[in-house]
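Thanks for the sequence, V.! I ran PA0069 family radical SAM protein right away. Repeating your input here for the record:
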Amino acid sequence: MNDKLPQASPIKGRGTAVRIAHRFERDLRAGFDDGWGTLDQDAQEERLLPATTVIEERAKSVVASNDSPDIPFGQSLNPYRGCEHGCIYCYARPTHSYLNLSPGLDFETKIVAKINAAERLEEELARPKYRASTIHIGGATDAYQPIERRLRITRGVLEVLARCEHAFSIVTKSSGIERDLDLIGPAARAGRAWVSISVTTLDGPLARVLEPRAAAPHRRMQTVAALAQAGVPVGVNVAPIIPFINEPEIERIVESAAQAGAKSIHYTVLRLPWEVSPLFRQWLHQHFPERAERVMARVQEMHGGQDYKADFGSRMKGEGVWAQLIAQRIDKAVGRAGLTRHVAPLDEGAFRPPQQAGQGSLF
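Predicted structure:
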């Protein structure tokens, strides 16, 4: 484990208790015993339940393009930066470094909300050079994290896409998506929408420390069922697969997904880029000290001897014997359950550009 990472007791409802320094910081800070109990006071304050702070941002643009061969979509939209779910393994944590915030506790307590996302989206879709292709929502941070209940930014984005008959897909681990079935259902039945629910584990106690503010596993399966009953093509994303932690559950998750009405299964292995590695290592030693070394040995085996290898083609699924075994287990479980690993293409041809502001209609 990284000896430079500050030690702290777990905070209930948070993935990590430390504000790890980000990789762009020029100054390193360390505690100093001044004889007045300052170190004890700092430790006590760190254990207090930190409130979630929302930082409102007026984004200049919201649709990002993607050309990675590992990702099956060309456009994405994330209404939020940072995520209150607090998943310790989240590969998006390092993005908070660009905001001069910690990928640790700040990532899950200081949430940037793109309050004008719907407005910007409509402007971008109205551009003459815009060519419609499926927009993937929530690929970095969850579009239905708890603050969405109040801010309803994702809801506004979906309203724009619905009016324009634009194809979209969503990935989430929140049951909050059920609120928007009135928008998602009609689009899905018209062949323009698809949803993936991430299910990391079926074990409630594990989920509480692995992804503390995400929906409980059984509740996510209820959401899979609700989406399926509403006619929405729904897949389950078994991700990330962590050796000796949730990896033994692969077959049970696939079976439960099929019973709930999922049509497809997808997966990724654990990825530990940049600051995620020391954060995950500390979490592992706190919660599973007896198997920490075995877990990291297998993770490194799948990433070419490193905590993370960012090469296209292998970063999502890993490489080597362990990665091959996981792929085989997924394929066999999917076959037994009568599911698929693929998703039918969405209808991108129905798109109708929004009217320019102030422009009337002739009809």
